[in-house]
Structures are given as C-alpha cells and as structure tokens.
Amino acid sequence: MADRIGQYARIAVIGLAVVVVLSLGIGAATSSASFSAYNSAWNGAADVQPVASETGATFSVATELETAYREPNNTVSIILSPDQAYTRAEAQRVREFVEQGGTVVVADDFGPHTNPLLSALDSDVRIDGRLLRDEQQYATTPNFSEATTTPNATFLNTDQTLTLNHGSALRANGTTVLARSSEFSYVDSNRNYQLDDSEALGSRPIATQESVGDGTIVVVSDPSMFINAMLEREGNRAFVTGLLESHDRVVADYSHTEQIPPLAGFVLWLQRTPIAQVGFGAIALILVGVIVFRPRQLVGVFDRKTESTPVDADALRAYLASQHPDWDETELGRVMTGVMPEETNLSEDD
Description:
Elements: H1 2-29, H2 48-54, E1 58-62, H3 65-68, E2 75-80, H4 88-99, E3 103-107, H5 114-120, E4 126-127, E5 131-134, E6 146-149, E7 161-163, E8 170-171, E9 176-181, E10 185-188, E11 205-212, E12 215-220, H6 228-231, H7 234-244, E13 249-253, H8 262-271, H9 274-293, H10 295-302, H11 313-323, H12 329-339
Parallel strand pairs: 1-13, 2-3, 2-13, 3-12
Antiparallel strand pairs: 4-8, 5-10, 6-7, 6-9, 9-11, 11-12
Helix pairs in contact: 2-7
C-alpha cells in the first residue's frame, strides 16, 4: 500500500509540474499588449498573420531593424504605433528600404514618434493626432467613425466601408488618398466628444499612398484597423488584405516596441544567432543520444522505487502483545501480516 501511495504522489507531482510548465510557457509566449502579433485578444494583432497567409505571402516578426528591412523586393513592412522613436540612422535604413522598392505601411493615431519618422522618410503625409468623430456615419458610437475607400485604392475590386476605432485623420498634402471619412466627420480638438463652433464638418483623409524612390509609403490614421476585433469587419479585412496581397513577404516591425513576450523574443534571437543554433543543436543531439543509447538509465531516474525501512518482526510482535495482551497468536499473526512489507516472511515459529 505504501508503494502505491508513493506512485500516486509521484504522478500528482509530475502532473502539477506539467501544468506549471505549460502555464509558464503560455505566459512567456503570449502578450496582452495592444497591436502585438502575439496577442490573440480583441486588441492584439495576431490575425494579421492569417490575413497575410491568405494572400500567399510569408509572415514574420522582426525585433531588429536589419531583419525587418533586409530584402526590399516584394516586401511590405508594417509599423503599428511605435513605442520608441526611430533614430536618424534607423529612419535612414527604413528610407533606403523604400527607395530600393520596398513598401512600408505606417499606422498610428496619437503617438508622438510617427510624424518624425514620416518626416525622416521624406513622406509628405502627417497624422493629425486629434480624435476623429462622426455623429452621422459611425459603427457603434461616433468614436467608431466610418470611412469609404476611393477609386485610388486600385487593389480593391469595389469601394469598401472602413471602420475606425478612436482614430485620427491625416494631412495628405497632395499625396494619393486611399480612403476618406464622411462629410459629417470632424476633428474633436478639445476631446469633449461633441461638435463645437470652432470645429468644422468635412471629409478627411484616413489612408494615403505615395511613392518615394522605387518604393511606396502607405499611412493609415488608425492602427486599430489592424487589431483582431476590427479585422472581423469585412471592409477593414478587405482593405488590409489589399495592402498585403501584392507582396511575397510581410514583416511586422516590432523593433521599437518593448511588448515582445520572453519566449518569442528568445526564438527570434535564436533565429538570427547562428552560433546559438549550433549550441542548442549539439545539446539536442546529446539528449537524443542519451534517450536512444541509454534508455534504461534514463527510465531508472523516473521509475526508482522508494526503499522500505527493514522491520524487526520480533520487536513488532512484542510491541503488539504488550499493547493487546488479550490477542492470541492467530490475531497477532493476522495483524502483523497486514503491517509487515510483502517481502518479509512470517512463520508460525516467529
């Protein structure tokens, strides 16, 4: 019975360890950050990958600039509301990517780092940075204003209705407008969520396209168009699909965000570090060798039985007799048989 209880205890400990490891693994591999490619909740951008896959393009996440902008031909890079500013040298690297034929999609609404990046990329577009509202054409509330694609969005077969989620507007400055809000929209300058005398109704650009060198820059005034919940809307999904489908590679540039899960960051580091790949490959080969050529020793580690403490039969008999003087030899023998380990032999002469 003691051995059986020990086996159950070992199984329980192993099961608990598996649950803990799986929980830690899931936590290390996922993120709750908005716009994260590792966040499958409503505010994450995990669904951008299946959208890219549907177009036949390969999808990857880059945490370093050189990885994101290595190959410009038939590649589109996506920048969603960066947390950190791009240095002049970093912006120059992105610009070279565009000039050599790459496409960059920049989406932001109120962040402080995007307009300086657009300026460094020699883009004429600027994000307004104030909330765009529409009290006539909206999805859920006036903060979810709707926009319509223009004939300039040639990658779409038909005009699409796009839905913003607390988005902003663009100052197009002569660039090609891909989508506009309705004539009833306005910029809520003071964020009081109502139209004031100083605020004017009018259609405003929310997506633009321009050529820089041999490449293209697309600017969208709401990064939420790329999150999971908003990609469920038919128009938004069609628009994002159209932006990606003419490319062979889609790269999500997370080089300027700190919201990369530890495990995902480790895998990305391993992918770009050949010497680490060699080291982990060697460790894997050693483990495989142990499993294949030393199976008994490996099984023995996990299947080791608990050694029982030897029991003195005479001492046990004397103790039971002193505690229960009314028991006869038959009763003593029966109790001892139930208590003593199975490998201990009891005889009538004991």
